[in-house]
Amino acid sequence: MMKNLFKIFALLAIIGLVPACEGNLEIEPYNSLDASTGFKTKQDVDAALLGGYSAIQNSNYYGLQMQVLPDLYADIIGHTGTFPTYAQVANRQLLADNTSLTSLWNQVYVAIDRTNNVIASAPGVSDPSFNVNAALGEARLMRAFHYFNLLCLYGGAPEGFNKGGGLGLPLYTTPTLSAEDAAPKARATEAETWTLIMDDINFAVANLLPTKVNGRVNKFTAQALKARAHLFRGEWADAEAAANEVITNGGYTLLPTATYANIWLSQNSTEAIWELQFDVNNTNSIAFWYYPTANGGRNEFTTLAAFRDAHEAGDVRKAVNASTAPANKTQKYTRISGTDNVMLIRLAEMYLIRAEARAQQNKLSDAVADLNVIRNRAGLPNASPATVAEAVDAILKERRFELAHEGHRWLDMRRVGRWNAFGLTEDFRSRWPLPQREVQTSGNIIAQNPGY
């Protein structure tokens, strides 16, 4: 894993992690734990798990980049600021030395290493009250989430995913405790990468508890990620079954039309399957980067006018996706102080996954019913696609409006092979470049994506 990042022994820094979860922990926070000696108690492991969530909160991951970059590369967000790295993304002319992409890649591997430390240490904890498999399930689900995100951006094939011949990732499944552990690894195949992802998800489904704790994953979070993964793999029956399990048995409910904006304004709603927690002591910079200087922000990003105007009349999501004052800013991130939570998985996505999976199996009436659950909640009338192709198009359209500013749009168009919908004409640009520095410092052991 990134030789330049890990030349020293790994210490898992877990200072004041995920404050919103602290009420669920009866431990004193550690300044650091020496990864070379491992985690000896269940308190150690739980603190290390919180360190895993903290890695996701970083501004180079879901504290900013993972939502913004994919939507900026697609047709949701425009660039109104001055950072040249973001201009590259908006212009869809990425270079391998783009520091925003490099920082994202590196931070996700930091997150992976934190989960690997838990996975290596948890089985050694001797405590009758410690549920080792649940802890492993939590860590392995996070690891699957990380590799899934990297694969969606940097791997696969121009045609999509699970198509054969796709590119995978350097895979690390043990902790980085020394420079030798961090030695560069060649990229696995896409199939090998998927095997790791799906093995981790299935272990989490089998071992996580259904208990809901704000900000932390549970059995239904695992089922939801399973549904998403099967959707990307084109495994329609499996995607339908996993999404159905969450919808039917997860105990989550959609907020009504009148309070749709409260999914983000009130936080931790009944719709949230996995919502990343932030507060005054643990902040992000998302609203700051969106909002204009008059509101205390930087004005680097804005909702594209074409996207704003594409909403149907009466769609309550329009006001959330493109505000009027200040103009064209998302209302999903409004707290300049950085205390907005970040939605990683929510129930509306499960309905849309089930709809698409059903459509692809020619269960057209059931697919349309799921689609219209989301349309009706948005204040819109029923859609009535007459064919499978029309239904899939209608579902992709609905995903565009429902999941805007959450980082889904580019990944959706990639997985269905429609990456050229945004004016791209070179198929190599369907995959983002691996960081140039990582390729170079590996002695080209890590192969760059073709074309870059």
Structure description:
44% of the residues lie in helices and 5% in strands. It contains 17 helices and six strands. The chain has a two-stranded antiparallel sheet. A two-stranded antiparallel sheet has the order 3-5. Strands 4-6 form a two-stranded antiparallel ribbon. Mean pLDDT is 93; it is low at 1-33.
Which percent range describes the beta-strand content?
under 5%
Provide the structure class: mainly alpha
Number of strands: 6
Shape: globular
Number of helices: 17
Task: Trace the largest sheet across and list its strands.
Answer: 1-2
- Cα-atom radius of gyration: 21 Å
Q: What sequence of helices (H) and strands (E) makes up the elements?
A: EEHHEHHHHHHHEHEHHEHHHHH
Mean pLDDT: 93
Percent of residues in helices: 40-55%
Distance between the termini: 21 Å
Low-confidence stretches: 1-33
Major β-sheet annotation: 2 strands, antiparallel
Sum this structure up briefly.
With 452 residues, the chain is mainly α.
Tags for this entry?
two-stranded antiparallel sheet; globular; 17 helices; mainly alpha; two-stranded antiparallel ribbon; 452 residues
